[in-house]
Amino acid sequence: MLDLSQMKALDIDAEHRTAWAQTGLTAGQYTTAAGAVGLATGFGDTGSVGIGGITLGGGVGYLVRKHGLTIDDLLAAEVVTADGRLLRVDDQRHPDLFWAIRGGGGNFGVATRFQFRLHPVSTIVGGMLILPATPEVIAGFITKAQAAPEELSAIANVMPAPPLPFVPAELHGQLIVMAMLVYAGDPEAGERAVAPFRKLATPLADLVRPMPYPEIYPPEEGDYHPTAVGRTMFVDSIDRQAAETILDHLQRSDASVRVAQLRVLGGAMARVPADATAFAHRHSRIMVNVAAFYDGPADRAVREAWVADFAKALRQGDAGAYVGFLGDEGQARVRQAYPRSTWDRLAAIKARYDPTNLFRLNQNIPPATEDR
Ligand SMILES: Cc1cc2nc3c(=O)[nH]c(=O)nc-3n(C[C@H](O)[C@H](O)[C@H](O)COP(=O)(O)OP(=O)(O)OC[C@H]3O[C@@H](n4cnc5c(N)ncnc54)[C@H](O)[C@@H]3O)c2cc1C
To answer: Of 6, 126, 166, 287, which residue is least crowded by CB atoms under 10 Å?
Structure first.
């Protein structure tokens, strides 16, 4: 394992709205520094995630509909390849490698620095909105999120209410919709955009407010590392029936934490051609992640069976998967992260830059061999 966590240099060029960032930075650290000058690059929903892994996988977060995936703001990178060269890659230099690292994960080398585009994002209207978990609220939430302006990106976590101070005690352990909303634009328009979500039902807690964008990543406990199993997938719609399926499966489990996370996609992310980067799921409409915490091997088997059954019940026409949320699920699942043409192109680039598969302890794309 290569530990890059000490590599945290960040060089922000506020005038040209770009930043060179070493890959030991976390999303939260980068966002705080960029936020100090009113700028942002979109990462995911969690500040402690490293910019290395999330960028190489694609990066789906709070600015996805407004500004696209993290890779859509990647202008260049520095990559140490298997033969020990330090390459500068961008549209002009090693464009094949630049294409591959935008979704192909850590297969092609060690990314030491990224150059990102920054956007003016200062005050957002965002935060947590907790609603009762009924089929109508879940399906309605998705409909509203799809109809919302692109400035608004929304994530709905259907899960048992955690014992947070602002959640009434009688709700702890009951299923709720814990939504995260971010409207990146004019605050007044933001208030209008979040109003339909507040009207879905009387909120159980409403922390949505104008705030500096970096506050969307609250401080986290440093040594909290729960074990979890999960399945990631894409679906086309969450109607009332799908919402009932979600509630039914969540009710049937007694895992301490269990969740169905729904992320509405589209917007800027969907306007990038599917073959422009190695992340090809540009037209997928909703990302679903189902997950459960487990405690020890016997419990893991129980939770595994539950997530597999849950994912099967939700499966629709979209067979793809997001590589960033894959666990240790085997080669067939890695292949689902890439359509055939993307996979073949990645395997050919892998053969060029890492013919011995030195970088294989990952969601592995083996190098193409001549007889394939
Ligand atoms: C709590 C949580 C929330 C998340 N939320 C989101 C989200 O909202 N959106 C989203 O898109 N993803 C999300 N993810 C998934 C996340 O993007 C991936 O797990 C990602 O791989 C994490 O990267 P890391 O650098 O933190 O992890 P690491 O464990 O350090 O890296 C994971 C793998 O990525 C590769 N890698 C990482 N850095 C480099 C590098 N510099 N060079 C080469 N290879 C590298 C390696 O193969 C490594 O094994 C979340 C993950 C967690 C744990």
So the answer is: 6
